[in-house]
Structure formats: C-alpha cells, structure tokens
Design goal:
- The complex is a heterodimer of chains A (293) and B (176).
- Chain A folds into two domains: 44-146; 164-293.
- In chain A, 84% of the residues lie in helices and 0% in strands.
- Chain A contains seven helices and no strands.
- Chain B is mainly α and 176 residues long.
- Chain B has four helices and no strands.
- Chain B has helices at residues 4-7, 59-74, 84-111, 139-157.
- The chains are: A mainly alpha (293), B mainly alpha (176).
- Chains A and B meet through α2, α3, α5 and α7 of A and α4 of B.
Amino acid sequence: MKSHLSIKLLFSVIIASLILVPIAHTQTPNPALPTPIPSEQEEFTAQVAYKDYVYTFDLYKKAHSDYLLALSQYKQAQTLASKTKTQEATTKMLQARDDVVITYLTALRLRVSEAEGVNNTDKSGLYSRIDSEIAWFQDHRQTITSAGTLQDLVADSESALERYSIVEPLAYEILSTIPLGKVEIIKSKLNSILAEIKIKTEEIRAKGDHDTTITERWILETENKITRGLDKQIEAQRLLATFQVSGESNPRLKPNYNANYNEIIDFLQQSNQLYKESSSYLKEIIRSITVTQ
Amino acid sequence: MPDPEITKAEPVFSQPDQEVSASPPPKPSNKVQPVHPPKKEKEKALPPQFVVAPEPKTPWGKLNRSLITFRNNLSLPQPIKIWGPRIAVLVISITLIIAVLPFISGLINNFIPKPTPTPTPAPTQEPSAFRPSPYAYDEVILAIEKKIAELEQELKTIEFREDALQLPNLDWSVQF
C-alpha cells in the first residue's frame, strides 16, 4: 500500500513538473539572451520638425477635403445623419488645423534655435512667444471635442482665427529675424577682418618699409561701404519692429505682413550687396600691402 | 621700154563674173596674155590687182601659182567660211589652257614666296607687374587673405528667404 502511494506521488510530481517548467520558462527572461534595446530616439532637429509639419499638413488637407464633402452633402440633404457627419468632419478638420499651427510653430522654434547671428535675448523672447501660442492651440484643440453643435464649432474656429492673427506676425518676425542674423554675421566678419588689417597697416606704417597711403585710402572706402550696408540693415530692423506692434496692439487688424516681409528681404539683399563690395575692397587692401607700387 | 601688155601675166585675183575655163592653165611664159581682159581696157593701165606676178622660180612659188590658177579655173564661189574647225580649235585650246592652268599656277606658286603665318601672341601678364612687397608672404596677411576668400564664398551662397517655412495656407472660414 505504501509503495503504491509513493508511485502515485512520483507520477504526480513528474506530471506537475512537465506542465510548470515550460510556463516558468516563458515567464522569466533568460539572462543569457540579449534584451531588446529600445531604438535610440531621433534627435529633434529643425529638419525633423519640418518633416512633422509637412506630414501634419498632409493630414490636414485630407481632413479638409472630407469636411468640404460632408458640408456639401449636408447642404444638399439637410438630414440629421448628414449633420452629424458634417459635425464629425468639421471637428477633425479643426483639430488637424490646430495641429498644423502647432507643428508649424514648433518647426519655426527649432529653426530659430539653429539660426546663427540671432542673439540669445531675441531668441528667448521668441521662444516664450512661440511656446505661448503652441500652448494656446493645444488647449484649443482639446476644447473642440466638447463642441455639441455646429455653431459651437463655428465659434471654436473663430476663436482660432482670432489667435492666428497673433501667430501670423510672429511667424513673419521669425522669418525676418533669421536672415537678419545671417547679415549680422557677415557684417561682424567684415569688421573683424578690417580690424586685423588696420592693426597690420599700423604696424607697417610704424616700420616704414612700405608705403601705406593707398592701403589707408582703401580702408576708408571699405568702412564707408560697411556703414552703408549697416544703414540698410537698420532699415530692415525698423520694419521688423512693425510686426511686433501689429501683433500686440492690433490683433484683429490684418496688415500686409507679406509685403513688409518682402521689403525686409529687399533691404537685406541691398545690405548684402554692399558687403560684397566691401569684401572686394578688402582684397584691394591686401593687394596694396603685398605689392610694391 | 617693153610693152606692158607683153609683161602682163595672169591676174592674181579673178573677178566674180569671170568665165570659168576648163582648160588647163597656160604654161607660164614671158608673153602671157591676161585671161579675158576687156578689149577696151587693153590700152588702159591695168589696176594693181591685175599686175602680173613675176614668174615664180622656186618650186613652192610654182605650186602656189598652179593652185591659184586651178582655183580660178574652177571658178568656185567665194570660199565659205567654215566655223566648225574654228570652234573645234577654240574648244581644244580652251581645254588645253584649262588643263595646263593648274600646272602653271603650281609653278607660279612655287616661285611666289608663300606668306608664313605669323604666330599669334598669347596673352601674357606683364612679367614685371607683380613686385612683391616685404609683406607679400607675411603670415598675418596670408591668414587675412584666406578669411576674405571664405567670406566671399559665404556671400555668394547666402539665402535670405526661408521658402520652406512660409505660412501655411489654411481654411479659416468655417460656416454652415
């Protein structure tokens, strides 16, 4: 009897082990095997942000076409089903529109962060304004789902439009600040080179082994050119300030920001041309130093 | 004075209205009568064309005389101007000239000195334009030169417009 019980026990243990061991193997990770490493997050650069923006804009275009289709069907049928469908399509479209604004502002923010020649004070000022707008549109996106009627959606759209009147000059301001930074870098480099030349010219004049009359004349001409280029740069900066004023004091008015932006670019191009001439003058200075007249 | 009639010989040129005699030409003699001279004109002085040529003495002259006489006796019409041989001669001569012309021109060319092409002077910089100063290879100057070159490159490639980040075109007029 005892031996019979022991045999039974043995069989039960074997069966239990056969069932439990595979389960245990599946639940506990094998330390010998390499654990899957999570893919390294792609660095969020301006380029990546721009790609996000483009993708979001494509989604918006799809949502917008759906909205237009639903709207036309609703206007024709005027049924409850078509109204519900229109409400859904409008909600999606408004959300997609907010997403476009958010990703666009994000792309601008990263572009500013990578821009050279823009001082940190200006950058931080722009960051805070951009972040504020992004936050507003994110909140707005959340509230769209709570709209119960088509009229609520219209109100949501209008509030977004009102806010967009701040976004628009801000965007143009950023788009103008970036090239202004580029021109500023050019001007700084020109001034730096000219300063080095001046020091060297002083040294040569002190030694007296080479005539520096022509060199000094060219230095004066170069300085004049740089000053004229700076004047154009200041004109561009003056126009840039109009974006800030119009964005803050007249949010409902919509001046021609694009015309202002084009004018700024024009001034900067003129400035760049003058700096190009300055650069050629610098070459003449070098020639006058290296060649005996 | 000898009688002019006796010395007169056959006229050199026959008149158009002269009769044709089939008889052989008379033998040349000192007393040859002119062929059909008008009777009234016998006494008159003969025109120069009727002056009788002296008796030829050479065989060539005799042959010539006999040929003339033969032709006169035949009383053939005036010799017809035959153009065929003349044209043939003209064509042959032109062909010859054309054939010979290149040869002649070749000869002329050989004799005429050919103009030799003058070498085109290559634009070269004035060798004495660059007179380096004591600072031509100065380190500071060379460094500045490099910076200027970099700046020029930057000025050429600079872009002011951020076309990719222009404002999106969104539909803001939601109405039902």
